[in-house]
Write a structure and sequence with these properties.
This protein has 284 residues and is mainly α. The chain has helices at 2-34, 51-57, 60-91, 98-106, 113-123, 129-134, 150-174, 179-187, 192-220, 224-229, 241-251, 255-280, and strands at 37-38, 46-47. A hairpin with a 7-residue loop joins strand 1 and strand 2 (46-47).
């Protein structure tokens, strides 16, 4: 009877599992296979072998997009996580208005980045408020029209849109820290740095590892905020790898080459995630 019930359960679950695997892994597998073919607009596929990857290695636009993406990752991820940690430490204990501040800090995450990008496009324009504030420092004018300042402006907007999520993750991790433990450390003479290093930071370690992997993955895939604010300009100063993938796949219909860009991006993201697992995922 038990075996029959098990078979019946498998029969009910198997169709849903098959659909999940097909739609979850099917496109990924198809993308990998497509990267070994050459495609032309309206024409049939032809076998290219590693031709798309060889073309990618010699494409200066790809290396430009990769350098922009790496700079974006290196600066946006640490700043976002650090800001999330600072805010989490500030609002972790219940005080009057703490829920309000948590909601305000989380609000950018549920705001459309395309809409926010359009607003910040005006803010960073020549006539925008940011230009007026930065003019005394010699940094006035349109930041998005500068090859030097366009990417920092995008990083500012991206951090603004993501730190609320990290704050809530770390606040949840800090809720498990007994207040008595902190009070005992305070009575023993532990300062603010000592309590942070030996009590709060170990409690946040799993959350920090989770955020590092998630934020890095999201940063490698940055597209919407760049597309809305600069379109990759000026002079490809903010041109990311995903924007290259978009242009090759949808603007030029070179699907094989676009798939090769996606495969390389996936491999890089996976390698970075594994490194983070080795460095941050170890138990202290």
């Amino acid at each position: 009877m038990a075996r029959r019930d098990a078979y019946i359960g498998v029969a009910f679950v198997l169709p849903a599992l098959a659909l999940f695997l097909a739609f979850r892994f099917g496109p990924a597998i198809a993308g990998v296979l497509l990267s070994f073919f050459k495609s032309t607009p309206g024409g049939p596929l032809s076998w290219a072998g590693i031709g798309n990857f060889a073309r990618l290695a010699s494409d200066p636009l790809f290396w430009r997009a990769l350098s922009v993406t790496l700079v974006y990752v290196v600066f946006s991820v640490p700043v976002s996580i650090t800001l999330s940690m600072v805010l989490a430490l500030g609002v972790r204990r219940g005080f009057r208005g703490s829920r309000f501040f948590r909601s305000v800090f989380f609000l950018p995450l549920i705001t459309s980045l395309v809409l926010a990008g359009s607003v910040f496009k005006w803010i960073f324009s020549t006539d925008g408020p940011w230009s007026a504030v930065m003019a005394p420092l010699g940094l006035g004018g349109s930041w998005l029209g500068s090859t030097v300042l366009a990417l920092p402006a995008i990083i500012v907007v991206s951090v603004w849109s993501r730190f609320g999520y990290g704050m809530l993750v770390l606040v949840a991790a800090l809720q498990d820290v007994p207040q008595d433990l902190e009070e005992a450390a305070l009575m023993d003479g532990a300062g603010a740095w000592g309590r942070f290093r030996y009590i709060l930071l170990p409690a946040m370690r799993p959350g920090l590892f989770f955020l590092a992997v998630i934020e890095t993955t999201v940063a490698f895939q940055v597209f919407d905020v760049i597309y809305a604010m600069t379109g990759g300009g000026p002079a490809n100063a903010s041109y990311s790898v995903v924007l290259l993938l978009y242009d090759q796949g949808f603007r030029y219909a070179d699907h094989g080459y676009a798939a090769a860009v996606g495969v390389v991006l996936f491999a890089m993201t996976l390698v970075v995630a594994l490194i983070q697992r080795l460095v941050l995922g170890r138990r202290p």
